[in-house]
């Protein structure tokens, strides 16, 4: 052996021969000679690099000047860091602690970062320290507010060190289960409300709502509180289309709408507003009720507009106000929707909300804050809906504004019943 190269990991110790075979001068006989090995530079197992070992022979032996002593090159490389297999997905109810056990090798007191994906980058949320052993396990506790988002991505990152190379774990998807959810037989609270009725609808005879109101105002006809697409509206539209060299159908389509000077975006958005959700997975039952009521109160003073369910200040009738309050609390009363409400035959969506079997009917004497109060007209059919605030008061949209009134208004004291949204 003249020269040999041995590659080891940074956590390993080189094993060198304790004896060398030497040929006696003038003989063909080999003897064993004890050897001590000396490295250049001084060996450090936890430091990557190349170390050259040469033997030191006992002074009991004379070495020929021409003799070539062997050498051993020890190449120390960083160990491959390993981390125990992680689950691809975790599910946990909000407001509870969340932790994940991991095992890392080599450990030797190395730091472990728990990172969350936010705004297009990985952000370190917590750092843990492994024990000072070759392999170590730890339980990584997630931050206390991990549950504030519906779904999040997490990973572990171990920086490079003298003991081992860097490691980035696979991503873990954490799905947050709601702290509060209605029983399965009732309307389920959602993380996102997506309308299944398009706001890009054409206006025809019988339609109501904000888009019709805008067209009627253009022609200076109709009632701002009770906008309807009447035969008069149709005649005005038809004449307008002829003047603008459009197909004279008497129906307002997108081209006609824009020729009137209205924006392209308003064509699909004006009648399809959905209140931003004000609750999150950690919200309590009370939080949902208050999200509903606080949203309704933003409409105070907003005009009553039949068939409308717009933004605060734009206009909403009784059903439209309730829809937006429900949306803000994560409740979608589909097939009732702010879009369908403007179409012929759906003026009294309060009747359809009452028919919804996924809303619990409760006795009037048991009414609570956040319940829906339904009223009937002289014919006996439901024609009004309001949100109960407690203390004998409701918030409602009734000609001609959104107001807070006593639950038993003298003009409208025929109460049909009570429905509960949150159970």
From TrEMBL:
Q: What positions does the domain NlpC/P60 occupy?
A: 286-422
- Carries keyword Nucleus? no
Keyword Hydrolase included in the entry's annotation: yes
Keywords of this protein's UniProt record, alphabetized? Hydrolase, Protease, Thiol protease
Family as reported in the entry's similarity comment: Belongs to the peptidase C40 family.
Q: What is this protein called?
A: NlpC/P60 family protein
Species of origin reads Anaerovorax odorimutans
Organism taxonomic ancestry: Bacteria, Bacillati, Bacillota, Clostridia, Peptostreptococcales
């Amino acid at each position: 052996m003249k020269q040999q190269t041995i590659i080891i990991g940074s956590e390993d110790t080189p094993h060198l021969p304790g004896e060398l075979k030497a040929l006696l001068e003038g003989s063909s006989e080999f003897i064993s000679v004890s050897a001590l090995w000396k490295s250049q530079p001084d060996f450090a197992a936890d430091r990557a690099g190349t170390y050259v070992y040469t033997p030191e022979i006992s002074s009991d032996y004379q070495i020929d000047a021409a003799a070539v002593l062997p050498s051993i090159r020890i190449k120390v490389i960083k160990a491959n860091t390993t981390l125990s297999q992680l689950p691809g997905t975790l599910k946990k109810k909000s407001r509870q602690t969340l932790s994940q056990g991991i095992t890392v090798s080599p450990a030797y007191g190395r730091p472990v970062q728990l990172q969350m994906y936010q705004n297009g980058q990985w952000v370190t949320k917590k750092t843990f320290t492994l024990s000072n052993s070759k392999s170590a396990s730890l339980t990584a506790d997630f931050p206390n507010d991990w549950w504030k988002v519906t779904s999040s991505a997490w990973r572990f990152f171990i920086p490079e060190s003298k003991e081992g190379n860097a490691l980035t774990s696979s991503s873990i998807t954490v799905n947050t289960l709601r702290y509060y959810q209605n029983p399965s037989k009732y309307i389920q609270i959602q993380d996102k409300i997506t309308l299944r009725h398009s706001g890009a609808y054409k206006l025809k005879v019988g339609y109501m709502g904000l888009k019709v109101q805008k067209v009627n105002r253009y022609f200076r006809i109709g009632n701002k509180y009770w906008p309807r697409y009447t035969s008069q509206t149709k005649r005005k539209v038809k004449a307008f289309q002829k003047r603008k060299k459009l197909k004279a159908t008497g129906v307002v389509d997108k081209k006609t709408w824009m020729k009137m000077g209205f924006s392209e975006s308003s064509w699909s958005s004006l009648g399809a507003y959905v209140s931003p959700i004000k609750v999150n997975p950690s919200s309590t039952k009370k939080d949902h009720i208050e999200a509903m009521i606080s949203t309704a109160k933003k409409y105070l003073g907003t005009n009553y507009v039949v068939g409308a369910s717009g933004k605060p200040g734009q206009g909403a009738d009784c059903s439209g106000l309730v829809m937006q309050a429900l949306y803000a609390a994560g409740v979608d009363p589909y097939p009732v929707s702010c879009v369908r409400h403007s179409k012929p035959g759906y003026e009294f969506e309060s009747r359809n909300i009452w028919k919804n079997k996924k809303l619990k009917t409760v006795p009037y004497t048991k009414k609570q804050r956040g319940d829906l109060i339904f009223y009937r007209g002289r014919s006996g059919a439901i024609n009004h809906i309001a949100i109960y605030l407690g203390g004998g008061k409701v918030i409602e949209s009734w000609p001609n504004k959104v107001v807070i009134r006593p639950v038993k208004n003298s003009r409208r004291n025929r109460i049909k019943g009570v429905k509960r949204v949150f159970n």
